[in-house]
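Hi Q.,

Before the meeting this afternoon, I wanted you to have the magnesium ion prediction in hand. No need to reply - just skim if you have a minute. The sequence and ligand are here:
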Amino acid sequence: MSVDVVVKNDAPNEEDWLIPSADVVEETALSAPGGQLADCFDSPRKNTTGTIARIEKGDVDDSSLCEQEDQSASSSNEDAVSEVDADRVISPIEPPPQPQRSISTEETTDALELLKEHGKHVFVMSEAGKPIYTTHGSEEDLSSLFALIHALVSFTTARNDTLDSFQYGRLTICFTHRGPLILAAVSRVGESQSQLNAQLDLVHSQILSVLTRTALLRVFEQRGHNFDLRRLLQGTEKSLGTAVVAAETDPAVGLNAVRVLPMVSSDRDALGQAIVSSVNACKVKNLVFGVIVVRRQLVTMVRMKKYALHPADLHIVLNLVACNPSFKNVESWSPICLPRFDDSGFLHAHISYISDNCPACLLLLTVDRHAFYALSEVKKKFVEKLTKSKSIAALTAACNGTRCFDLDELGYADLWHFVYKNRTSSQLCSAMFRPPFISSDERQRLIDSYARLVDRVHDRGDDGPLKILFQPGERQTLLAWVTPNFELYSAFSPFVQKQSAVSKIDRLLKALKKEEDRLFLVSTQTF
Amino acid sequence: MNESYNYLLKFLIIGNAGTGKSCLLHQFIEGEFRNDTTHTIGVEFGSKVVQVSGKNVKLQIWDTAGQERFRSVTRSYYRGAAGALLVFDVTSRESYNALLQWLTDARSLASPHIAVILVGNKKDLENDRQVPFLEASRFAQENDLTFIESSALTGENVEEAFLKCARTILCKLESGEIDAERAGQGIQFGDAQLRRVRADGRKTGGPLSNCAVCNTS
Ligand SMILES: Nc1nc2c(ncn2[C@@H]2O[C@H](COP(=O)(O)OP(=O)(O)OP(=O)(O)O)[C@@H](O)[C@H]2O)c(=O)[nH]1
Ligand SMILES: [Mg+2]
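Predicted structure with the ligand bound:
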């Protein structure tokens, strides 16, 4: 049973938010799939490693892969170009274009049945309908679904229309067409369309991050629409799967924000200063970003004056680190494309963990592909400085300390959880999970409710977002509060009164303000 | 922490994805098998000082990604390499078939004089072997390579592969086949060698100036 929109008044002004005039919506809980969820969302909840189907031998003519390339290539963009040039030389025999399949209703129903085994599927295919990636199962099992999705998208595109999403029973099916790729998400866990879109967006960015957009476009241009992209994506299944899981389990992705590790602000500043002074001491130019991350949280960041690091790009970086435990104990030098920064070329990242005892990872991103040794020196100098100033101990302690806001400190028994996003800095802070959100199912259910709440607040067409939404429910009462400066989503006991909830949130906001410089990165150093 | 050394050599490890390049590097540096590997993204870097014919030689090793999408990026790191371990997996014919291309790359992009050791890795998996020892050693002969079979798992012949490569380079140096003082050969003098050179009364300016002084590790 679900009772939709019980009371609906105009959105309150910021001054009169105490007047009970916000939308009141009763909501029945939807079931969510199982899995484990860490306190701070950082552990994969499901095994969605996915598959990039095997490439048949004979498809690739290895002997021509290593065609000579122009050695003078020096701009980062040329990585992408030469990759494609090498491809063009190969020209293996293209499989004949597949005849346009007609899909019977029966076949379609079978394929949709397949989806029920898993809560969620993400599909990536080329515009020609060639399967590229799926989170579960093999391409063979799902070929009729790929064909169906392709048919649906082609049908609407041919009519100069776009297909965003549709419902099939309890399935929500969502599409994104970003030439030359088509992405689709199928979910039965009641995720909202915007949540699914955020997931597809992250998967798309993830693909761009390993190829660059330029190379992606060129490869289809030069090799034809039937080119099998799986060849170039081999080995990225894990990071695509992890991206899907992160988008599901971490509200930061959907809210386009970044989670920050709580830390004493002077300690945090010392880290940024140490990076900047090491860079200067080593006379390194062309460094664009220096970032320290730990378990999907940002510790600090320094940047070239004219560039900012977009949260979506930072999620790519976080994902890269999370998916490659083998960065530990070695120094790596990795090409990475950050699509929001520049989707036409690679940045080069010097990646290393700070020390054996400190779980934080330092990334130095530059446009100079020959800067490895210079950045290796920067890293050495940086660690020397940290060790001398004892900052390394402070950093390690912060990494091992609380990674979320502890609501126990406020002492409100009926305020159970919250997620707060600073809209100016796109940084996010959330409460540590506490009862009744014990099991990973319960936690995921809460995150899914937040996602629907976010939708309800924002998807209002020209009316602009609601300011306050109070939503009593059987399991919990939700309260959303949105201003130009922040967005806050919170969960209370179902018995909470609106007045009381609002005043508690008010106190919470004050507490967050007071601790702002510990919970957030308030300033970034530049060079 | 200061290690003094006579020579600094840049090494590459190249070959198809999954042949065990990163495992070989780890075994060489840490002396143990690393079983948590994921595919290398770009390159991984390691260094170690070894003794070769009475000299301290520091190896700077670039372990490259074998996956196709990294091909063009990793090639840009070849320049200035003095030696390379060209790795295939004895249980994968595919990785063996790709050798010639890797070799062509190394010789054309690094230096025609690059010392290449052919390494047939995973020799512990005798039952799954697809490439006979004799076949690979014929290939090595035809292409002027030294051949060795190794196991990053058991550690067998791992250090030997790196040392063989370093030895070959030092031999070429002594025989005058290659000249460390010419740029682009991937060989630099270390502190110790420079001191010796000075003591010998040779000029340290001029031609040596393009051999950067690398005093610490
Ligand atoms: N049995 C056996 N397995 C090995 C040996 N060396 C590596 N492996 C395994 O082979 C797989 C690939 O090893 P890696 O070292 O990651 O391969 P790589 O050549 O670095 O691959 P890329 O980084 O993708 O180019 C891993 O699962 C290793 O455990 C070996 O000597 N014997
Ligand atoms: Mg590797």
